[in-house]
Amino acid sequence: MIKKLSPLFCSLVLAYLSFVLGGCGAAVLSDEGLAKQAGNQFNQMKKKEKVSTNTSHNRMIQRIGKRITDVAEVDIQGTEWEFVVFDKPEPNAFAMPGGKVGVNSGLIVLSDGNEDEVAAVIGHEIAHVAFRHSNKRMSQAMGLALGGAILDVAMRKKDNTDRQIARGAYAAGATVGVALPFSRSQEREADHRGIYYAAMAGYDPRAAISFWKKMQAKSKSRMPQFLSTHPDSGNRIAFLQGNMDRALALYREAKASRGEKPNP
Ligand SMILES: [Zn+2]
Prior knowledge:
61% of the residues lie in helices and 5% in strands. It has 264 residues and is mostly helical. The protein has one domain (7-257). The chain starts with 6 loop residues before the first helix and ends in a 7-residue tail after the last helix. The chain binds zinc ion. Zinc ion is lined by residues 124, 128, 182, 187, 190, 230.
């Protein structure tokens, strides 16, 4: 039987990391309500979109999902996680409030089937859920959108992303946690927490860097949807690199406790 890092150890490390990087923005919408709405929208997606029947893709995503949510459990208890692979060529992944996670087959293809890279993306997505980023982003957008006439005046002072978000939240039927781009500070939080989730689940954290490089190279031909909802937090690669020593130490520890050999 594979041993994992103990939950107490995980919570101590993650508590320390939270202390280093505080949360941002207030979440004022009902988490329960958002989770319910997201669950309904996810069910619609599963009916409307083609769900992948690729066995190795499905096994990989379920395996990564289980390992990373086991670690993230200390941050976000009692979540009914669901991981679905959609048969779509666009390299994209998303996680909705309540724990609904979608990964396009195109993202697995972009990573050349590298499980560590896919785990880096899923770690990042799960961090967005753990930090309740969609709730905070939507709360902020709703706040900005209060009062139609004031909206335009208020918007002139806001940057482009906020304007886009306010419009998105204002329009009925904005998809929970999928349509609204995250803010750059939320991206940084998700990069930070995500790399540790993956490392503590025994995935090579260096894969986060190789993955983002592939995604950036892809954006030279056409902006992938994934980058439009996950904007560059500014020197993303340098930021990940700055956290790499600690993440690698956790990765090696996690591999040792699983009785597996880490990548050199
Ligand atoms: Zn993100």
